[in-house]
Request: fold
Amino acid sequence: MIDIRYSAEVAKARAEKRPLVALESTIITHGMPWPQNLEMARRVEATVRENGATPATIAVIDGALCVGLEDAQLEALAQTRGAAKLSRADMAACLAMGGTGATTVAATMIGAALAGIEVFATGGIGGVHRGAEQSFDISADLQELARTPVTVVAAGAKAILDLSKTLEVLETLGVPVIAYGQDDFPAFWSASSAFRAPLRMDDPATIARAHRMRRALDIPGGQLVANPIPRDAEIARSEIDPMIARALKDAETHKITGKDVTPYLLQRIYELTEGRSLTANIALVLNNARLGAAIACAMGEDGK
Ligand code: PSU
Ligand code: MN
Reply:
């Protein structure tokens, strides 16, 4: 019933049982401005290839679940204004209505799992928003990590979120949070946060083995691998914090709610940092693509 369309490159990799890395499309349509979004998407795909795996950017296009996009589709999506932002709640409705939309972390995990892809690289996941005790704004990404067996590589969660509450909810949901190569949970634009991650791993093979072990134990859900931004691309907390505070205030003034909150904050921080947030964002996504590819390669070597 689902119309799954594989790009030529992904179909070939599947036939040859080569490692695949899923990539999301909301980061393209709602996370970065044109034309840097297209440039980023292409560079991330190239980075996955350079590191021995095949990229599968996931999106819903004209009622089809696309796993891997041809370059023209990638370009069209990057130029689309007002594309739908699809999560678990609305992915089926979009497919049923023959619609088009970009997939968030949650929806990309669903698509990846359907296609048998176990590793997914992105920038940042959604989480518990600051003030969630009032707004109840908690991203569906967290629930998805608890249910769908995909290892997600991200640069931690950004400080527009409440990091301590996000870590608490992940623990409650039984999601392993693994800091890569350090003890601290990274904070997106900064390599470290004030929080220690519950788990630490230092090599892709161990992460792949832990993923397999959860499956063997019949524990549903995935893993969150929190990969710190490269030190030379970091933005200091002291520098970004006032911009975040300002962006949060502006969101409140303009009564931004629901799905619009995260894209609004990202855009506002981009403006307030005069583009520096974007440069850092691109550096960390590329770094995550490298690690994602290494984990995907290790999954293949790991056996059952
Ligand atoms: N965080 C980022 N960049 C992004 C997103 C989050 O640094 O592009 C996107 C991802 O697609 C993520 C979604 O899944 O926002 C979360 O949205 P919400 O908070 O509405 O669940
Ligand atoms: Mn939300």
Summary: The two ends are 30 Å apart (CA to CA).
